[in-house]
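FAQ

Q: What does a record look like?
A: Structure on top, sequence underneath. For example:
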């Protein structure tokens, strides 16, 4: 149980829930966040924390875990339970993608049972229907459209539709050519589209000269758009065929629905699993942002927090690169209640709320930003009295509201309760309020509950000093600089520094002396003693920190020395081994030379001159051996020096390589050099000057030929047969030679509808550039956007990820240069947020 009813708002947990909701990938995960609640079950809390810890590790270290297509099909599955109902095409596409994700997660966890045992335990109820994915893929393609061969009847219908559309194209080409020959329209007139049908734009004066139906007129009425009668009749046949097509698709979807209806329960269980993974993912993601850990959960009641930090302060300070000062405290059976005193704005209330929020988060199954050595028990009740609860409607004063809270505490507190009270005893006359506060505190001690209380009252500080089970604590204050240190010190009460703060603000010295006389010398001495103790403690703590720092440096230097010594001994051993080998070789050569000398003396039969010569050679060799022996030590020293120089050279070379790599990385991230930009500008300017209306051109890297009809600023209107498209001049070049037009009218019509129907039908309106280099990604984006404009696609999206936002900026800077792009911006937060750019095309 927790108290009061607005507990989550008071301690800041509602903001934590908001962060969790924003991190969810699906409505499934959000439903779990909304239903998340305070638990007193130690085993349940431990399991939730272990699963969250494992998911956090997956987010940090596993790239293969799938985090896409977290889609909720539970409502659709409920809707198709009655016989005769069927799943929609869009729902089938979502079913395929989400099941692929679910099965991939199950496979991943099954392969890593040892690394993630708690997450793997969630897969026990998931039934894998291997044929289900294949059944979906037989019906729907990767873009979400029903395949032609989903059924034989559907294939036949679509083939007929295609033939009819080709026939319409041939008729339109024939009539268009006839109109040009008869002079009814100009030679540069091309087909247009109205309401999805091909029409011929003709001056309204001549409209009766063509047998057909007027589908539309220009705003001025001067131009009429006519569909020839022959084409009109064929299009009516196409409409009937398209109706049959829709009916056949429903038939296919109904048959598929009948197949999955018996396994509806299994599918519902799979989506519950997917929601659980999404819930754990958002908890793990928050844990990474908070640098949260799993503390030790104890069976006994304990509040041993080591380096605890307020979660919301961590997130708030990150933007300004500030550090949250950690908090350490220990409550146990011997000291159950901590009384914190100290100056205003010194951090007492933040300390109180930190413990309340962290304890509540932990018992909701969230990892918390503390040292993992912290030992924390699970409480059945958490009661707080924080802030002003006065109410005009209920005629409730500030002090009355505090008393009502104390009444509730006394009635419900026990040894399994954690109580947090801010500014204990305030709201009324100090002596009376302090006496009541002491009595309440004494009763809470008898109930053996745990608690943290903040106060300014000296009476309560004295009471805490004299009472077993209560310990004083102080928020430290820098008396020299007159500013709080926001650090909690356990063992002694703290001074409010009221006179020092008043003096720093500028109140007269005489007034402050008068105030000291009024409160009495005893109270002033007590407060001064507190300040002296606090000052001495701070000095001692600084010295301890200095000693620990020096010891750490000494330890590091010792480790470095031992490593260097080990390295030197190793090198020395290698050099001596090599020297030993060379010495053995010298001895071998010496013996060989002596044997040779003896042999020559014998062979020369001891001729005097020959003997002298041989002996002289032997003496020379001995001198050489002596010199080698004398210089061996110098040679070894020189070799050691050469090794040292070689190491320095390698280090310098490595530094140069790293600098070169950084320079290249900087060029990739921040763009090309000025020379490259000027060169590109020259090329663009040259292209604009050369190209003109009537030129035969080719789209760069597309091998697509057309003719410029009109120059419009940075763009050109290019005719590709009967189709026209607006393309940037920089993407065009003069065609070296026009391709021969060997295709007949029927072939032209096929090409026309292949462009209008087939390409548009199979065009995938999403481009994934994640993991690509900036220049490669930009090239792919250019091709993707140009193709969308040519096919008259109105909306597309580019998936570039979040990261540092570099790729997103490069892509959006390029989009700003395209006149035909009406708008672009982030996707909805549920569908990727600023990791996806949605583009609208005119």
């Amino acid at each position: 149980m927790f108290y009061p009813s607005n507990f989550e708002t008071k301690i800041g947990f509602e903001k934590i829930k908001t962060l969790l909701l924003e991190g969810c990938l699906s409505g499934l995960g959000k439903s779990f966040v909304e239903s998340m609640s305070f638990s007193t079950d130690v085993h349940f809390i431990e399991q939730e924390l272990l699963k969250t810890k494992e998911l956090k590790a997956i987010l940090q270290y596993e790239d293969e875990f799938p985090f896409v297509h977290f889609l909720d099909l539970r409502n659709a599955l409920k809707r198709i339970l009655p016989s005769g109902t069927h799943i929609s095409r869009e729902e089938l596409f979502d079913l395929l993608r989400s099941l692929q994700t679910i099965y991939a997660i199950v496979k991943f966890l099954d392969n890593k049972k040892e690394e993630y045992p708690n997450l793997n335990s969630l897969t026990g109820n998931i039934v894998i229907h291997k044929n289900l994915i294949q059944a979906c893929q037989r019906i729907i393609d990767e873009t979400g459209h029903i395949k032609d061969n989903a059924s034989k009847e559907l294939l036949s219908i679509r083939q007929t539709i295609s033939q009819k559309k080709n026939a319409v194209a041939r008729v339109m080409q024939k009539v268009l050519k006839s109109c040009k020959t008869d002079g009814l329209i100009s030679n540069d007139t091309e087909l247009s589209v109205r309401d999805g049908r091909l029409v011929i734009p003709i001056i309204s004066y001549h409209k009766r000269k063509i047998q057909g139906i007027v589908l539309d007129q220009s705003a001025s009425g001067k131009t009429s758009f006519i569909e020839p009668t022959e084409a009109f009749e064929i299009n009516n046949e196409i409409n009937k065929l398209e109706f049959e097509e829709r009916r056949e698709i429903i038939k296919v979807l109904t048959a598929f629905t009948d197949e999955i209806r018996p396994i509806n329960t299994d599918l519902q269980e799979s989506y519950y699993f997917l929601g659980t993974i999404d819930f754990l993912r958002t908890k793990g993601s928050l844990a990474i942002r908070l640098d949260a850990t799993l503390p030790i959960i104890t069976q006994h009641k304990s509040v041993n927090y080591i380096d605890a930090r307020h979660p919301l302060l961590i997130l708030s300070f990150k933007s300004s690169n500030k550090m949250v000062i950690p908090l350490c405290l220990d409550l146990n059976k011997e000291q159950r209640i901590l009384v914190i005193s100290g100056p205003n704005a010194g951090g007492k209330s933040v300390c109180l709320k930190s413990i309340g929020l962290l304890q509540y988060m932990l018992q909701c199954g969230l990892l918390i930003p503390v040292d993992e050595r912290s030992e924390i028990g699970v409480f059945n009740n958490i009661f707080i009295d924080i802030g002003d609860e006065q109410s005009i409607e209920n005629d409730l004063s500030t002090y009355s509201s505090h008393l009502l809270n104390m009444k509730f505490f006394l009635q419900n507190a026990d040894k399994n309760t954690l109580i947090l009270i801010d500014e204990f005893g305030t709201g009324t006359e100090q002596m009376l309020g302090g006496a009541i506060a002491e009595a309440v505190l004494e009763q809470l001690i008898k109930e053996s509950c745990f608690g943290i209380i903040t106060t300014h009252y000296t009476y309560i500080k004295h009471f805490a000093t004299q009472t077993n089970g209560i310990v004083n604590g102080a928020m430290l204050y820098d008396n020299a600089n007159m500013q709080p240190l926001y650090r909690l010190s356990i063992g002694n009460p703290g001074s409010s520094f009221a006179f020092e703060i008043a003096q720093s603000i500028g109140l007269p010295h005489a007034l402050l002396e008068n105030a000291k006389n009024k409160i009495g010398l005893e109270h002033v001495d007590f407060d001064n003693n507190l300040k002296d103790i606090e000052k001495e403690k701070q000095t001692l703590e600084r010295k301890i920190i200095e000693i620990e720092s020096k010891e750490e440096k000494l330890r590091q230097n010792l480790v470095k020395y031992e490593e260097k010594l080990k390295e030197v001994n190793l090198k020395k051993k290698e050099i001596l081994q090599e020297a030993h080998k060379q010495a053995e070789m010298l001895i071998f050569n010496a013996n060989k030379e002596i044997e040779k000398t003896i042999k020559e003396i014998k062979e020369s039969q001891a001729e005097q001159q020959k003997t002298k010569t041989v002996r002289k050679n032997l003496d020379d060799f001995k001198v050489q051996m002596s010199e080698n022996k004398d210089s061996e030590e110098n040679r070894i020293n020189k070799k050691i020096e050469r090794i040292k120089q070689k190491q320095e050279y390698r280090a310098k070379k490595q530094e140069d390589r790293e600098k070169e790599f950084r320079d290249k990385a900087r060029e990739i991230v921040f763009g090309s050099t000025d020379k490259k930009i000027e060169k590109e500008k020259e090329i663009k300017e040259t292209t604009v000057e050369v190209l003109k209306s009537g030129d035969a051109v080719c789209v760069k890297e597309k091998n697509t030929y057309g003719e410029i009809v009109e120059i419009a600023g940075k763009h050109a209107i290019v005719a590709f047969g009967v189709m026209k498209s607006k393309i940037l001049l920089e993407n065009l070049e003069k065609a070296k030679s026009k391709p021969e037009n060997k295709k007949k009218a029927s072939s032209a019509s096929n090409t026309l509808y292949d462009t209008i129907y087939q390409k548009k039908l199979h065009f995938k309106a999403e481009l994934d550039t994640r993991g690509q280099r900036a220049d490669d990604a930009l090239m792919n984006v250019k091709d993707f956007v140009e193709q969308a404009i040519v096919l008259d696609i109105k909306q597309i999206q580019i998936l570039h990820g979040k990261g540092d936002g570099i790729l997103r900026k490069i892509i959006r800077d390029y989009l700003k240069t395209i006149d035909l792009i009406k708008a672009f911006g982030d996707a909805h937060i549920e569908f990727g947020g600023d990791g996806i750019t949605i583009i609208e095309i005119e």
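Q: Is there anything notable about this one?
A: The domain at 297-519 is CATH 3.40.50.300 (Rossmann fold).
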